[in-house]
Design a protein that fits this description.
Blueprint: H1 13-20, H2 22-29, H3 34-37, E1 69-77, E2 88-92, E3 121-125, E4 131-137, E5 148-155, E6 158-166, H4 169-178, H5 196-201, E7 208-212, E8 215-223, H6 266-273
Parallel strand pairs: 1-8
Antiparallel strand pairs: 1-4, 2-3, 2-5, 5-6, 7-8
């Protein structure tokens, strides 16, 4: 994997407001009533069964794993657009082949164990501008889920946000079919447009990804209520009691208890991945 720079400038307030859009910028800067200035809170999603509260404070979470370099940058603010410093942000996701560290029953045949491993997990504290970043690799996929990155924002002992960051289908498709660490014997079975968790969460967890020298950079502005105490949807860990409707071989991924979609192919797959062209 390509070595990444030792330091990276965090996203400032200007970058945060740009990420939230022009509407958020004008609202935060104008003397309009308080109700008009409120930014939409980032959607909560299921924690999934693979979270570990390790408090492993580090920015580089790769542990030498093979994969396409990805830097994940978050900027955390409240609904008025004020940066929130000194909050803990946890991040975790699967490797290029869709496997999580710290758990057994991994891989397509659920025969691999990574218990005791900590790859692709880490925690950081937001700086004075609410910014935090992680050096990682682009995540792979596993059956029943689209490409995603898990994260939490923790204020003291309370998780004020538990959610997932969804990455663009077109980039994921290219990497999974063209780059050797990601290649599999079958196509990814779930796209963003068919993932129940992504659809329910909506636009607040769709950030942006751009190409920089020797890496991709994914950015997402997180808008949280620092006083919130939301209930956390925490599915049982692998090996726990079975649920009705559980697919053969294990628990439903990330608590998604619904039939797995059939993977589109050919022209239908292209239509599902590539945004439609504007009519002239």
């Amino acid at each position: 994997m390509t070595t990444l720079p030792d330091s990276q400038a965090p996203i400032g307030r200007r970058g945060l407001l740009a990420a939230l859009g022009a509407a958020g910028l004008s609202a935060a800067a104008s003397p309009a009533p308080a109700a008009a200035r409120q930014l939409p809170l980032t959607a909560q999603t299921t924690e999934g069964p693979y979270y570990l509260d390790l408090a492993l404070e580090r920015s580089d979470i790769t542990e030498g794993l093979d994969g396409v370099p990805l830097e994940v940058r978050f900027t955390v603010c409240d609904a008025a657009g004020r940066p929130l410093p000194k909050l803990r942000v946890d991040l975790w996701h699967c490797d290029a082949q869709g496997r999580y560290s710290g758990f057994g029953e991994q891989g397509d045949d659920r025969a691999l164990s990574f218990e005791g491993k900590t790859f692709l997990r880490g925690s950081q504290r937001t700086d004075r501008e609410g910014a935090v970043f992680f050096r990682s690799v682009y995540p792979g996929w596993y059956a029943g889920r689209t490409t995603h990155i898990h994260f939490k924002v923790i204020n003291g002992a309370r998780a004020v946000l538990t959610s997932q960051f969804f990455l663009p289908d077109a980039l994921s498709e290219f990497l999974y079919t063209q780059v050797s660490p990601y290649q599999r014997s079958r196509l990814r079975d779930t796209l963003n447009s068919a993932d129940g968790i992504a659809l329910k969460a909506g636009a607040t967890v769709l950030g942006s990804v751009r190409e920089e020298r020797q890496r991709y950079v994914a950015t997402l502005a997180l808008v949280v209520d620092p006083a919130a105490s939301p209930a956390i949807d925490r599915p049982p860990r692998p090996g726990g009691p079975p649920h009705a409707g559980m697919p053969p071989g294990g628990m439903p991924p990330d608590g998604l208890r619904m039939p797995r979609p059939r993977s589109p192919e050919g022209a239908a797959r292209i239509r599902a991945i590539v945004p439609p062209r504007a009519e002239g």
